[in-house]
């Protein structure tokens, strides 16, 4: 059974588009030279104190996709595959808070393209606004797909309903706007007539910041037509003390058929690029193939839990505590919404070592 089809017509169209697009580099090559795609030294650096893109994304009048069916509601951690099938999904978060411009680690993208490795990137709405050219490149690349990672990496468990709605829908609108801008370019017009139809109209995948959710935020995500994608392998790459060897070891030793692996490509995956060069050849030698999350969903039965967590239930509760430390309880709802968007550290929960250091130092995941 193709479980992803339960999502409804919008998701099926998107998945069909992704499948048709796979391997077709026509649009990518028509619009971007190799030098335009290549890594730029220093682009991975996070610029603090820059509020050039802090304006809230306007979502008035935006129409989300059809809601997710009941069978696929909840936190998807991995996919159980048929015997003998060895596929895994590499995922990378591209998140950006207010008061900064996050990075783009081009070394990661260069290596994935060189190796022909597919991946899914969960991009924040603000990140897409501040990285318009790179967003267009991701859309055009047949190896990659884009998911939603909230507007400003807020902990949705701490927000009022209106603020949750903003965080969930703003990246959908940012993506839709980016797709429209890209589609208007001359290179697209001179490419294949149906090239834009192969790029999904809206993301159908979502990742909660910190891997933390509650019933209300999960409902908001699923009602907006997105699957909530967690992971079953966290490498700890937001911790600058995690070496490339340790990150690679987590990927190679913990991945199983149907695994979803979380890393970062926004300058907060400190040694991720080097780790990939170690891990990917070893995973290929083990017989694994790399697919996007959407493709993985078609290959077996998703493992869904009602609670979001990193490694075990309840382990993301610490992010509520850290948020409370940084925001006085007497803040107004509006101020809480604004501040939470700026507070959320642009990284997902990582391994237990990182979690411990985070409790000792609240800024450990915001380097």
How would you portray this structure in words?
This protein has 367 residues and is α/β, with parallel strands linked by helices. The chain has a single domain (3-37, 64-360), classed as Glycoside hydrolase/deacetylase (TIM Barrel, Alpha-Beta Barrel). Helices cover 39% and strands 13% of the residues. It contains 15 helices and 12 strands. Strands 3, 5, 6, 9, 10 and 11 form a 6-stranded parallel sheet that branches. Strands 7-8-2-12 form a 4-stranded mixed sheet. A two-stranded antiparallel sheet has the order 1-4. Strand 7 (205-206), helix 9 (215-223) and strand 8 (227-229) form a beta-alpha-beta unit. The longest helix has 23 residues, at 161-183. The model is unreliable at 1-22 and 327-367 (pLDDT under 50).
């Amino acid at each position: 059974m193709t479980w992803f089809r339960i999502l409804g017509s919008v998701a099926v169209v998107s998945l069909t588009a992704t499948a048709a697009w796979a391997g077709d580099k026509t649009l990518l090559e028509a619009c971007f030279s190799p030098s335009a795609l290549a890594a730029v030294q220093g682009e991975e650096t996070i610029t603090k104190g820059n509020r050039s893109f802090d304006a809230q994304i306007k979502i008035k009048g935006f129409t989300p996709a059809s809601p997710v069916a009941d069978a696929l509601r909840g936190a998807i951690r991995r996919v159980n595959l048929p015997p003998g099938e060895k596929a895994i999904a590499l995922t990378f978060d591209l998140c950006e808070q207010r008061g900064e411009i996050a990075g783009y680690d081009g070394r990661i993208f260069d290596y994935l393209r060189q190796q022909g490795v597919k991946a899914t990137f969960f991009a924040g709405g603000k990140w897409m606004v501040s990285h318009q050219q790179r967003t267009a490149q991701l859309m055009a690349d047949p190896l990659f797909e884009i998911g939603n990672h909230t507007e400003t990496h807020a902990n949705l468990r701490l927000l009022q309903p209106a603020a949750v709605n903003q965080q969930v829908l703003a990246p959908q609108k940012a993506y839709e706007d980016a797709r429209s801008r890209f589609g208007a370019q001359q290179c697209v017009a001179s490419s294949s007539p149906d090239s834009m139809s192969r790029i999904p109209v809206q993301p159908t995948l979502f990742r909660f910041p910190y891997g933390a959710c509650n019933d209300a935020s999960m409902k908001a995500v699923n009602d907006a037509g997105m699957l909530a994608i967690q992971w079953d392998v966290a490498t700890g790459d937001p911790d600058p003390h995690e070496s490339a060897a340790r990150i690679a070891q987590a990927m190679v030793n913990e991945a199983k058929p149907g695994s979803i692996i979380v890393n970062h490509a926004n300058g907060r995956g400190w040694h991720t690029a080097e780790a990939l060069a170690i891990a990917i050849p070893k995973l290929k030698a083990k017989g694994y193939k790399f697919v996007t999350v959407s493709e993985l969903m078609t290959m077996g039965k998703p493992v869904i839990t009602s609670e979001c967590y990193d490694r075990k239930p309840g382990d993301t509760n610490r992010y509520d505590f850290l948020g409370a430390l940084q925001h006085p309880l007497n803040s107004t709802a509006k101020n809480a919404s604004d501040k939470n968007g700026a507070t959320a550290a642009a990284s997902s929960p990582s391994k237990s070592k990182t979690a411990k250091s985070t409790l000792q130092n609240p800024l450990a995941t915001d380097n």
